[in-house]
Amino acid sequence: MKNLILSYIKEEDGQTSTEYILLVAVVALIVFRFKSIATEKLSSITDSVFKKAEGFVNEMN
What we know:
By secondary structure, the chain is mostly helical. It contains three helices and no strands. The chain is rod-shaped and about 80 Å long.
């Protein structure tokens, strides 16, 4: 019995579709959980970049 369990644990034939589905589900949960935070951060970064670019353009005129 011990050998059977050890061989099952050591078996590495590759991922099954179930493992891929679980991986996709975990990634989707993380994305949905942090969507609002990421949106806020990305928005503030892009606003900052465009304000600096606008400042450079205004200095050239």
